[in-house]
Design a protein that fits this description.
Elements: E1 2-6, H1 13-21, H2 29-34, E2 41-46, E3 52-57, H3 65-72, E4 77-83, H4 90-101, E5 106-112, H5 119-133, E6 143-145, H6 154-167, E7 178-187, E8 191-197, E9 203-204, E10 208-212, E11 216-225, E12 228-229, E13 232-233, E14 238-244, E15 256-258, E16 266-275, E17 288-293, E18 296-303, E19 314-325, E20 332-337, E21 343-351, H7 369-380, E22 385-386, H8 390-393, H9 398-405, E23 414-417, E24 420-423, H10 424-444, E25 451-452, H11 453-460, H12 464-476, E26 480-483, E27 486-489, H13 498-514, H14 521-528, H15 533-541, E28 545-549, E29 552-555, H16 556-569, H17 578-585, H18 589-601, E30 605-608, E31 611-614
Parallel strand pairs: 1-3, 1-4, 4-5, 5-6
Antiparallel strand pairs: 2-3, 7-8, 7-15, 8-14, 9-13, 10-11, 10-15, 11-12, 11-14, 16-19, 16-21, 17-18, 17-20, 18-19, 20-21, 22-24, 23-24, 25-27, 26-27, 28-29, 30-31
Bound molecules: guanosine-5'-triphosphate (GTP) and magnesium ion (MG).
Magnesium ion (MG) binds at residues 13-14, 37, 57.
Length: 624
């Protein structure tokens, strides 16, 4: 469990932490010299019930709010410190706002330096502080009067912190490990060490981790919490992780240590933001702001469809980042203006890994993992969503995601195909479209056997394995049958009317009579005045006609004759030029080349640089 301090510069945060823990968290020489905190300090606090609380002590100076943010993120409890002599000051207000935006829900307020004021003044300051927090999560926080100098109120403060800690819900250890890095340094003999607060999951020694956004892989060589070697770290613990395989220059505050592949750095986040009503002007899409999530601090533009976001407004937006960050659905972030540097608002991530650069925020952003999954599946449609990153994209532990993937699980019945997930209604709809395509084809071409599966795939325009699954399932049903490359209604038989039967007979005769030089499909069509292609296909299926070139069918026996002639006229192994073969076959050039290409395709001849050779003898080929 983590407690973060908050409050204006010099209000006595560090002094109170030392009074509570005995640890001086101002460790830098510059901090000692200037008497202020610059960067984060850490100290363990043993509670009366034996539990260990980690304190993150933050700087109050306005120049170091970004460091305060890196410390305040991921805390369970706040300790707001307001000096009795100065009362509420600008960073008192800003820090409270930041805690609120980060979703810190509980804490304790200390009115410090009480040795410097009298009772009357103290009462006024208490009223001021109550006013300052009345619209925030700290409105009901207990308020204690303390002095680090005299020790007054310090034990009562410890007890109040203990009581607040008892109200904090235990974080889920059975989840994906994530640690936003707040410090990086080298230790002699150990190598690179990164520290941070464990946000979720657990990490053990020897585990393989990745440091994002760079993606360097490393082995956990050692683990410590508050200077003590441990075998594993759990959510809400401070952790120092010694990494084998990472150079200290490859890591910095703002990186995120993860162990699972579901985590991916992203430069686009679909989010909801709320801007503070105290902002002086609206925020347009071209203004760069500072975006703080975890310990990351990057430039960003906040893009709302339909114009700028006004002070006090809440909106669904696209957060476009200058550099990739690691985020999870449900994460909270803070926005600060780039100039002047003030907190301007914050938000919640709805989708940290939108599939497209142009993805839009959904109008009513869902708040539960189920609802997020539902929304993702719906907007993905027939594209489906990748399963691996779902725990990050919907912000739920892997076992929760698994329970949502059970087929038919409400409220988002879905189906897994390969490594993707599809909304069940989307697949049903694809099935309906296949049935419609087949029905329409049968109605239009009653003589046809069915629809080419390739053309069904093209019409569906979905991932090939999705089309496969839809077809496969339909073919198992009483509706559809797949025969070779064609799909048809189960039990479908091509139908011929008496008139069609007569036309078919005419066509047979025309092809027979045309012999080695038959008319093309459009010529036949022009002559007969009806659509002949279905009839030609029927003749092809029954083995009476052969498609030798595009749009030209031959009577099968004419083809057999020609192959026979070739087999007779060609000696094994000898290469023949087209001119020689033209003489053998007695064809004009217009018919010769397509026929020879047909012979190559069907394996009867083989085309070599010096000419064609006989590849198979008539009778062996199955053609003749
Ligand atoms: N009289 C009196 N002085 C105090 C008390 N607590 C702190 N101080 C003094 O106030 C000054 C600032 O105290 P810090 O604890 O460093 O204040 P801080 O809030 O940590 O300051 P930053 O981290 O820089 O924001 C120091 O000179 C302390 O000695 C107190 O209870 N009584
Ligand atoms: Mg300090």
């Amino acid at each position: 469990m983590i407690l973060g301090t908050a409050g204006h510069v010099d209000h006595g945060k560090t002094a109170l932490v030392r009074a509570l823990t005995g640890v001086d968290t101002d460790r830098l020489a510059e901090e000692k010299r200037r008497g202020i905190t610059i960067d984060l300090g850490f100290a363990p606090l043993r509670l009366a019930d034996g539990r260990l609380l980690s304190i993150v002590d933050v700087p109050g100076h306005e120049a170091f709010v970004r460091n305060m943010l890196a410390g305040a993120t991921g805390v369970d409890l706040a300790l707001l410190v307001v000096a009795a002599d100065e009362g509420v000051m600008p960073q008192t207000v800003e820090h409270v706002t930041i805690l609120d935006l980060l979703g810190v829900r509980d804490g304790v307020i200390a009115i410090s330096k009480c040795d410097l004021v009298d009772a009357e003044w103290l009462a006024l300051v208490r009223d001021d502080v109550r006013m300052a927090v009345r619209a925030t999560a700290l409105r009901d926080a207990p308020m204690l009067v303390t002095s680090a100098t005299t020790g007054e109120g310090v034990e009562a403060l410890r007890a109040a912190i203990g009581a607040a800690a008892g109200r904090v819900a235990q974080r889920d250890g059975d989840d994906l490990f994530r640690l936003p890095v707040d410090r990086v340094f080298t230790v002699r003999g150990t190598g690179t060490v990164v520290t941070g607060t464990v946000w979720s999951g657990r990490l053990e020694r020897d585990a393989t981790v990745r440091l994002l956004p760079g993606g360097m892989r490393a082995r956990v060589r050692g683990l410590e919490s508050h200077g003590m070697a441990v075998d594993a770290v759990l959510p809400g613990m401070r952790a120092a992780v010694a990494l084998a395989g990472v150079d200290v220059r490859q890591a910095a505050r703002g990186a995120t240590l993860v162990a699972d592949d579901a985590w991916r750095p992203s430069r686009l986040l679909l989010s909801r933001v709320a801007l503070l009503s105290a902002m002086s002007r609206p925020l347009g899409p071209r203004t760069t702001v500072r975006f703080h999530l975890g310990t990351a601090d990057v430039g960003a533009r906040i893009v709302k469809a339909g114009g700028p976001i006004g002070p006090g407004e809440r909106a669904g937006v696209r957060v476009v980042l200058d550099a990739p960050v690691v985020a999870r659905a449900g994460d909270r972030f803070v926005l600060r203006g780039a100039s002047p540097l003030v907190t301007i608002g914050g938000g919640i991530v709805d989708d940290p890994q939108p599939p497209h650069w142009r993805s839009r925020p959904v109008a009513h952003a869902p708040d539960t993992a189920e609802a997020r999954l539902h929304a993702l599946l719906e907007s993905a449609g027939a594209r489906g969503v990748e399963i691996a990153p779902l725990p990050v994209r919907i912000g739920a532990a892997p076992r929760v995601v698994s329970s949502l993937l059970v087929p038919g699980a409400p409220p988002a019945p879905s189906r897994t195909i390969g490594d993707r997930l599809y909304a069940a209604p989307v697949l049903d709809e694809l099935g309906r479209r296949v049935r419609d395509l087949v029905d329409q084809h049968h109605a239009k071409f009653p003589m046809d056997e069915g629809v080419a599966i390739e053309s069904i795939r093209a019409a569906l325009a979905v991932e090939p394995d999705v089309a496969d699954i839809v077809l496969e399932e339909l073919s198992g049903s009483e509706f559809l049958e797949l025969k070779g490359a064609v799909a048809m209604r189960r039990g479908w038989l091509p139908r011929l009317s008496d008139a069609d039967e007569r036309r078919l007979q005419d066509l047979r005769q025309i092809l027979e009579a045309a012999g080695r030089e038959p008319p093309a499909v459009d010529e036949l069509e022009a002559a007969s005045g009806v659509a002949v292609l279905p009839m030609l296909r029927l003749l092809e299926r029954s083995g009476e006609a052969v498609l030798v070139e595009r749009h030209r069918y031959y009577a099968a026996h004419a083809v057999r004759d020609m192959l026979h002639t070739l087999a007779e006229g060609m000696r094994d192994g000898r290469e023949y030029s087209p001119a020689e073969l033209r003489d053998t076959l007695g064809l004009s050039r217009k018919f010769l080349i397509p026929f020879l290409e047909y012979c190559d395709r069907s394996g009867f001849t083989e085309r070599r640089p010096g000419g064609r050779v006989l590849a198979r003898r008539a009778g062996q080929s199955g053609i003749a």
